Amino acid sequence: MKCRVCRQPAIIDIRRHNANFCSEHFLRLCRDQTAKAIEDFSMLEPGDRVLVAVSGGKDSLALWDLLIELGYEADGFYVGLGIGGYSDRSGETVRAFADQRGLRLHQVDMRTDYDTDIPTAAKATRRVPCSACGLSKRHLFDKAALDGGYDAVATGHNLDDEAAVLFGNTLRWQTEYLARQSPVLPARDGFPRKIKPLVRLGEREMAAYCVVRGIDYIVEECPMAVGNKHLGYKEALNEIESRSPGSKHDFYFGFLARASQRFADAAPAAGGLIGDGTPDPGIITGHCQNCGSPSTSEVCAFCRLIERSAGARPVTVTPKGRPL
Fold first, then answer.
1. The whole model's pTM is what?
2. Which H or E element spans position 13?
3. Nearest to 18 by CA among 227, 246, 290
4. What are 295-308's pLDDT values in tens digits?
5. What distance in Å separates the CA atoms of residue 199 and residue 160, rounded to the nearest whole number?
6. Beta strands 19-21 and 12-14: pairing type?
7. What tens digit of pLDDT does each residue of 224-257 get?
8. Are 43 and 71 in contact (CB under 8 A)?
9. What DSSP state is assigned to residue 294?
10. Which domains does the chain have, with CATH numbers?
């Protein structure tokens, strides 16, 4: 197996490109694909400051590394979610990555700063854990970006993630979500710009990137994500991809090029909510009396979550994601 570019021994084959790459040219491919996504979707301008949402997983750490390699001023932001040993290991991994490279890392710990955590908040509010987690992270990412004067929040969603989300939304024809399925969400009043620079790269490439670059990352999935439909959609698409390489790319980018605008009018009406109960960033009906964030009521969804769970008896999570 030889590299398509230099004919030296290859370390990886990428079937959707029908090509193999050595270490040097594989890293170049990852940089080029990230830069192409940023350019094609006008994610960033020269001089923009980026806040990277990092979790300790391969995608977010690879994204942070790639943005630095591409010359952007990129700082990290980590949220300690309080999900047992998983969160402990995640935090240690992120801090080690930042320390080794001399990068700036902002941190929030939900238990220390808000007297709750995701397992406890999910139980107290009777939310699905992934819903409580998504709500909390989005609120905290937005707040950190706006308070820090950043131009954009970057997340490590890759091609596999976005294709799986699109698959789920299409299966149920959730038109309000399809209307927002984009690699970029523009800045709005009270919301920073959101970008996903890894949409041209898959999970396998991100894992290989971390290995070649010597980036240690958390391999395990979040224990509270067990049974998440998103993982099932990924498995289904992986089976299709194995039989027809390039299917994920064609499905996702075909939607963006030929179908996404058909759903432009399907965004939630004024006062509508997106999946986890937070207001759609395009809809500004008021501001939270507690934190000042955009809200459809006097108190935003995040502040209500904290009010109902702060001080509650902490929930212990087993390695299999079951609360004790």
1. 0.91
2. strand 12-14
3. 246
4. 888 999 999 999 99
5. 8
6. antiparallel
7. 887 788 889 999 999 999 999 999 999 999 999 9
8. no
9. B
10. 41-309 (3.40.50.620)
